[in-house]
Specification:
The complex is a heterodimer of chains A (431) and B (439).
Chain A (H helix, E strand, L loop, with lengths): L7 H10 L3 H5 L2 H8 L4 H7 L4 H7 L7 E3 L9 H11 L5 E3 L8 H10 L5 E3 L8 H10 L5 E3 L8 H10 L5 E3 L8 H10 L5 E3 L8 H10 L5 E3 L8 H4 L8 E3 L8 H10 L5 E3 L8 H10 L5 E3 L8 H10 L5 E3 L8 H9 L1 H5 L3 E3 L8 H7 L7 E3 L8 H10 L4 E3 L20 H5 L1
Parallel strand pairs in A: 1-2, 2-3, 3-4, 4-5, 5-6, 6-7, 7-8, 8-9, 9-10, 10-11, 11-12, 12-13, 13-14
Helix pairs in contact in A: 6-7, 7-8, 8-9, 9-10, 10-11, 13-14, 14-15, 15-16, 16-18, 18-19
Chain B lengths: L1 H21 L5 E5 L11 E4 L2 E5 H18 L14 H14 L4 H12 L5 H14 L4 H17 L5 H18 L4 H14 L5 H21 L4 H15 L3 H10 L4 H11 L11 H6 L2 H9 L11 H24 L4 H21 L2 E4 L2 E4 L14 H14 L1 H16 L4 H13 L7
Parallel strand pairs in B: 1-3
Antiparallel strand pairs in B: 2-3, 4-5
The chains are: A alpha/beta (431), B mainly alpha (439).
């Protein structure tokens, strides 16, 4: 453990005068080590104990990983500047999630003083613009993870700067940065071959070319989230490689069964697949998928309106690990499909969450079948108007820990205590 | 069970939010009395751009959203709250809570903060307040929020949609006034809005608006005879009409289907004092120029050499006399309505004040006092105050117009004897206006 040289003299001076045993018994290195296990709040408290402790607690080595989210979010730029001066090269990980008043100026200071930062989270720092990313690209070549979720001023320029300066990047999140387009993504894909996770929810300009680049240049890509990129077609999705584990293409309304078939052949290890609002998908695609992707655990099929019980039959047979299945607004699903699902190998052990809201054909019968799903913890039944209160009560009797989400008014417990009160007031009794 | 309850409530809040954000033309909200739900059906209804919430869930939803807001939105400065809501959840909760109970100023203030932080859009705020007002048309907080929004909006922005903005604002006032009789908040909002526009839109447009509002208030007044808030607004409109330019006055006269001069002459002819020989016939009076008519009615020469704007003076008298006949008509139709009698007081007060003003007098502690001419600022200090006042006062009381008005009032009070307000009106004129000796 080392601490900044400029403080060594001061520590020697203060420790001589201290009466406290702990300071005498333990060497400074050990104290520093102990302090390094504390969180932000405790460190700040320790810093108020004595001059010695102040120096120790605020030593940069204790501040390698900082997350201000639970501590304080209305921080001003000066706080970040202080942090970056104190931590210097020690800082590895910084989360400024939700610190909305942070702007470019202080982020530039940070990039200059903390060149070793590896993980930076700027989620919802709405004032951050391309200048921050340019500074990061110039200084912080070790950056591996960057989260720019909901920073609307971030554009392709940022992605280019980051790809030029940070070749080690593995995780990138640019969700809701609406100006991001194919050019930025292509630059990133070309110069960051180690990329494992790319998330760009709601970036409407991300198109087939962008995703194709990611698929060809980043062979390790495991996580891809292109929710709401409605320009995407089967062309790019079919190019995704075998490393893919978690894929979210919700809201990519142009996708058809071709994508599903391609995923089935190329990405057999898929664990999570979100396909909400892909309304063109049919049973045929899911048949192919269920045959080869046997590791699937989570599937979101909300508003895949064309799928029928056949899909459920295939999923039940092909995906024994299925934990979470959302079938909201799949209006053709009937009790038969649920019955098949409940008889599958996944049902008894794995299935924990099942979303059936707005499936108008689901009736009380479905709930009776689900009794065999011992692990079921949550079932969503909003707006399934054929499901009655009695059926839910029966299901609860069999699965006491289940949570049922439906539009039934919660039963209010009868008001207790009204009848138990003595009819006469206490004073009358005494007299 | 509590988890499920919370999930249900949050789902309902989300449903409401979905309807609010997806339906742009939403114009009404209400709570639908459905006490029990046998079917697993959403309590949030959206039919023909109206949002409804079934009553069985209101209590739970309100409890949840209110406590959530109070615990987590940092309203108590003492208690340092750990969890802070993000702006979207905060907005969702604010929407639902305020729709159910709009009388929470704290929450409205939170919304204002959000507008200042650009987390909320001003136009969506206008829509939301409108929705709130559709259920609670008397909610002052919603009106004041609207005023705040409009104030910042009108001050800071170059406005492209001013016309539609004015229209929607007036429509909102119409709807709220219509839904709830005697809606003071609605009418004072309308009044504030017109006053606010004075600094913003061009004079011509403003005059057109004054005329429109005058006509509107007349229609409204004759349908809502005991809504004094409306009468108050009418008085505001009349005062605005005083300031019309010549051009606008022409369009104003053309827009009406009555001739002001004829109404005035008719009133005069019916109540000419008997003891005097009137040379002018009705036709003559109609064709008189404004100046001549005023000379005939007031027969007064100002002591100083200033020119009196007899045209505008004549217009004011015409306007007020029309108002007086209108009021008499309404009173004959709808008896025993206090607010109309109060409106009559206003009219007479205006007429009498105007005459005092013309004669260079004003009432101070119930006594007439001579004031300096407002144009040339000369005071005749040589003559004694008392003497001048006596002579001017005599002039005033002998003028045709004054006698006509007094006679007309006497007649009207006799006519509506059975109305107890008539007696009060007489007392008002005698004691408050100091016409005891003359009636």
């Amino acid at each position: 453990m080392s601490y900044s040289t400029r403080n060594k003299f001061e520590i020697a001076r203060f420790s001589g005068e201290e009466e406290n045993h702990i300071n005498k018994k333990l060497p400074k290195e050990l104290l520093l080590r102990i302090l390094s296990y504390l969180d932000v709040v405790s460190l700040c408290r320790c810093a108020q104990v004595s001059k010695l402790w102040n120096i120790l607690a605020l030593d940069g080595s204790n501040w390698q990983r900082i997350d201000l989210f639970d501590f304080q979010r209305d921080v001003e730029g000066s706080v970040i500047e202080n942090i970056s001066h104190r931590c210097g090269g020690f800082l590895r990980q910084l989360s400024l999630r939700g610190c909305e008043s942070i702007a470019d100026g202080s982020m530039k200071t940070l990039a200059q003083s903390c060149p070793n930062i590896e993980d930076l989270n700027l989620n919802k720092c709405k004032k951050v613009t391309d200048h921050t990313c340019q500074a990061l690209g110039r200084r912080c070549s070790k950056l591996q993870r960057i989260n720019l979720d909901s920073c609307p001023s971030v554009t392709d320029i940022s992605l280019k700067a980051l790809s030029d300066g940070c070749p080690l990047l593995t995780h990138v999140n640019v969700s809701w940065c609406q100006s991001i387009s194919e050019n930025g993504v292509e630059a990133l894909a070309r110069s960051c071959p180690k990329l494992k996770s790319f998330i760009c929810r709601g970036c409407k300009n991300v198109n087939d070319r962008a995703v194709s680049c990611l698929a060809t240049f980043c062979v390790d890509l495991e996580v891809l989230n292109v929710q709401g990129c409605d320009n995407l077609t089967d062309d790019s999705i079919s190019k995704l490689g075998g490393a893919m584990r978690r894929l979210c293409v919700s809201g990519c309304t142009r996708l058809t069964d071709t994508s599903l078939c391609a995923l089935a052949t190329k990405c057999p290890d898929l664990v999570t697949l979100e396909l909400a609002q892909c309304a063109q998908l049919t049973d045929a695609g899911f048949q192919a998928l269920a045959r080869s992707c046997r590791m699937l655990e989570r599937m979101d099929l909300e508003e895949c309106v064309l799928i029928t019980d056949t899909t459920l039959v295939h999923l039940a047979m092909g995906c024994p690990r299925l934990e979470k299945l959302t079938l909201s607004h799949c209006e053709l699903i009937t009790d038969y499909g649920i019955k098949q699902l409940s008889m599958s190998p996944c049902a008894a052990e794995h299935l924990t969450v099942l979303g059936l809201d707005n499936c108008p054909l689901v009736t009380d019968g479905a709930l009776e079948h689900l009794i065999s799903c011992h692990n079921l913890q949550l079932i969503e039944l909003y707006d399934c108007q054929m499901v009655t209160r009695n059926a839910i009560r029966k299901l609860r009797n069999h699965l006491p820990n289940i949570k049922v989400h439906a539009y039934f008014a919660p039963v209010t417990p009868p008001v207790a205590g009204g009848g138990a009160r003595p009819r006469y007031c206490r004073c009358c009794n005494i007299i | 069970m509590t988890d499920e309850k919370q999930a249900l409530v949050e789902k309902i809040i989300k449903d409401v939010h979905n309807v609010l954000s997806k339906t742009a033309e939403l114009y009404a909200f209400d709570i639908v009395p459905v006490e029990t739900n046998f079917r697993n059906k959403s309590p949030v209804m959206c039919i023909e751009n109206c949002l409804g919430l079934e009553s069985w869930c209101v209590k739970q939803v309100y409890l949840h959203s209110y406590t959530e807001l109070m615990d987590k939105a940092c309203f108590q400065t003492q208690k340092k709250c750990r969890q802070v809501l993000d702006s979207e959840t905060l907005l969702r909760l604010l929407n639902v809570t305020l729709l159910i109970n709009p009388d929470l100023s704290v929450l409205w203030n939170k919304r204002k903060e959000m507008v200042q932080e650009l987390l909320l859009d001003t136009s969506s705020e206008l829509k939301f307040t409108r929705l709130v007002l559709s259920r609670k048309p008397k909610c002052n907080d919603a009106f004041s929020h609207r005023r705040w929004i409009l104030g910042t909006y009108l001050n800071n922005h170059q406005i492209n949609y001013l016309e539609s903005l004015i229209n929607t604002e007036l429509i909102v006032c119409d709807l709220t006034a219509d839904k709830c009789p005697n809606n003071y908040h609605s009418w004072s909002h309308r009044l504030w809005f017109i006053n606010k526009l004075k600094n913003i839109i061009k004079q011509n447009d403003m005059h057109a608006l004054y005329i429109k509002e005058y006509n509107f208030s007349e229609r409204w007044m004759s349908k809502h005879v005991s809504d004094f808030s409306c009468f108050h607004y009418r008085q505001f409109c009349i005062k605005n009409i005083y300031n019309l330019s010549n051009v606008s006055w022409k369009t104003f006269e053309n827009s009406l289907d009555i001739n002001f001069r004829k109404v005035l002459v008719c009133l005069l002819a019916k109540n000419f004092p008997k003891d005097r020989t009137i040379q002018a016939s009705e036709q003559d009076l109609v064709s008189y120029s404004e100046e001549n008519l005023m000379k005939f009615l007031l027969s007064y020469n100002n002591s100083c050499s200033c020119n009196v704007d007899s045209v505008s003076l004549c217009r004011k008298f015409e306007l007020l006399c029309y108002e007086l006949t209108l009021n008499s008509e309404l009173l004959r139709f709808y008896k025993h309505h206090e607010s109309m009698w109060y409106h009559r007081r206003f009219i007479l007060h205006e007429i009498i004040e105007m005459m005092y003003d013309h004669f260079g007098l004003f009432r101070h502690n119930g006594v007439l006092v001579k004031k300096s001419c407002k144009y040339c600022k000369t005071t005749d200090l040589k003559q004694k105050q008392a003497k001048i006042i006596r002579s001017h006062g005599d002039c005033l009381y002998k003028s045709v117009l004054f006698q006509v008005i007094i006679k007309h009032e006497k007649k009207f009070i006799q006519e509506s004897e059975e109305d107890k307000h008539a007696v009060r009106h007489e007392k008002y004129l005698k004691l408050i206006q100091g016409l005891n000796n003359l009636m």
